[in-house]
Amino acid sequence: MKRLWKVGELAKLTGLTIRTLRFYDQIGLFSPSAHSDSGHRLYNEADLSRLQQILSLKELGLSLDEVKSVLTGAQFSPLEIVSLQIARLKENIQREQNLLVELEYVSNLMQLKQPVTVDDFTKLLEMMKNSHEKYVLERRMTWERRLDLLGDLVDGNSDDSN
C-alpha cells in the first residue's frame, strides 16, 4: 500500500507551513493527488517529488510563476534541477571562501602592522556586501515563513488536517 500524507503531516515533514501548501494548491502549483472521504488533502510519493522540484527551483531564486512555468513546460528534469542546486551551492561556497581569504589577508596585514590600502578595504567590503546580501535574503525567507506560521495561528488552525 502506498503511503499518503495529510497536509499537516506534509507541512511537518517539509518544514513548510500548512498555509503555504494550501496557497500552492490554490494557485495550481502543487495540488494533492487525492482527497479523503472527509475532504482532507492527501499527498503521495509523486507529490513529494514534485514538491522537491518546486522547493529546489525556489531555492535557485525563481519566482512561483517561473517555477510553475518550468514545471508545466517540463524544461528541467529532476536531475537537472539537482545539478543546478549543486552548481549554485558551489558558487556560494566559492564566494565564502574568497571572502575568507580576503579577511585573512587583511587580518595578516593588520597583525604585521602593515598598511591596509583603500583597495584592500574596498575589495573586502565588496565581498562582505555580496555575502551579506545572501544572508539578508535568507533572513527574509525565514521571516516570511514565521509570518506564515503566525497567519496559521490567526486562522485558528481550524482545519489543520484539511
From TrEMBL:
Q: Which PROSITE patterns match?
A: HTH_MERR_1, HTH_MERR_2
Give the PANTHER family listed for this entry: HTH-TYPE TRANSCRIPTIONAL ACTIVATOR MTA (PTHR30204:SF90), REDOX-CYCLING DRUG-SENSING TRANSCRIPTIONAL ACTIVATOR SOXR (PTHR30204)
Q: Which organism is it from?
A: Paenibacillus pectinilyticus
InterPro entries named in the record:
DNA-bd_dom_put_sf, MerR-type_HTH_dom, MerR_fam
Question: MF terms per GO, please?
Answer: DNA binding; DNA-binding transcription factor activity
Point out the coiled-coil segments of this chain.
79-106
Which key words are in the record? Coiled coil, DNA-binding
Q: Domain HTH merR-type: where?
A: 4-73
Q: Name one Pfam family in it.
A: MerR_1
* Membrane-spanning ranges: none
Do the record's keywords include Coiled coil?
yes
Q: What is this protein called?
A: MerR family transcriptional regulator
| Keyword Coiled coil among record annotations | yes
